[in-house]
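Suppose you are handed only these lines of text.
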Amino acid sequence: MDSKVMFKLSYGLYVLTASEEDRDNGCIINTALQVTGNPNRISITVNKMNHTHDMIKRTGCFNVSMLTEQVSFDVIKNFGFQSGKTVNKFEDYEGYLRADNGIIYLTKFCNGFISAKVFKEIDLGTHTMFISDVTDGKIISDIPSVTYDFYQKNIKPAPAKTEKKGWICKICGYVHESEELPEDFICPICKHGAADFEKL
Ligand code: FE
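From them, the structure of the protein bound to fe (iii) ion can be written out as follows.
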């Protein structure tokens, strides 16, 4: 099989947010979709290594902010390339409000948000799928939603020239210096797997 065929599937990019006690957090996901219209339900799939994952498991509530084609790489870095376990991602972040469920949603680089409550969890090994009832939502702008493909071509900076030898993560640019890349390798920066690495 040509494993690159999987890249022909189209994805969006979203900031997934949750709150617990006085703590807010958010991460980037590319898997959010409406699964039924009546009742109105969406599914999200979240890597278990994300702090937001654990917060949703405990609280059962979250918001999904849909990112637009104007999103900057800094936003992706802020939410995607650091962990909420060690950093407060909203400390210096401008451009968000709180929805009726008490959870943050983005107002900048975002064309709408959906609030949801978990209906069913499915354990997928590395990830959990949360099938959830939509409880609220709002349109913020008419700027087109960014796709993962658009992000790869227009937002992600070209990789810096490096003398390093090894394997580069196509998602965040991290270089793993070794001859072979183990099949179960996980990028320490963005948590993507070996399939997203390319030999330098
Ligand atoms: Fe990475």
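What can we learn from it? The mean pLDDT is 93. The chain has two domains: 3-151, 158-200.
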